[in-house]
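User: Here's a chain of 127 residues. Predict its fold as tokens.
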Amino acid sequence: MHLSIGIASETRAFGKAMRRIRPGFDALVASFAAQPLAHPIHEFLLVGLTNSQPLGFLEEAPNRDGAFQVLCGLGPWEHGPERDAELRRMAWDAVRRSIEACPFSAPDRAAVAHLLVDEERRAFAGT
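Assistant: Prediction complete.
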């Protein structure tokens, strides 16, 4: 199953910040693609991150193309690089909640949960 993380930015500051932190998700995307699923329900998971919705907002978007698609709000963001770690954590939590909202078979859910724990530990080691 493939994971795609997209950005919908209302402001230049948010767009620039998301471009700075985006490489921090590359390992998760690669691990997610490499994770074999016993009974896949969807072909891919599309996660849209935006500053046009409040922090914590999560809404499934209808999709008939084999995707589970969600839009996640991160709230307004007008900060510079000094707050990138905070934004990265907020974005990671939104992506995790999106993955957890995706329907999986019981064995696949367990495998994906394990993957999330491992990748989060690696992504935030030393922070």
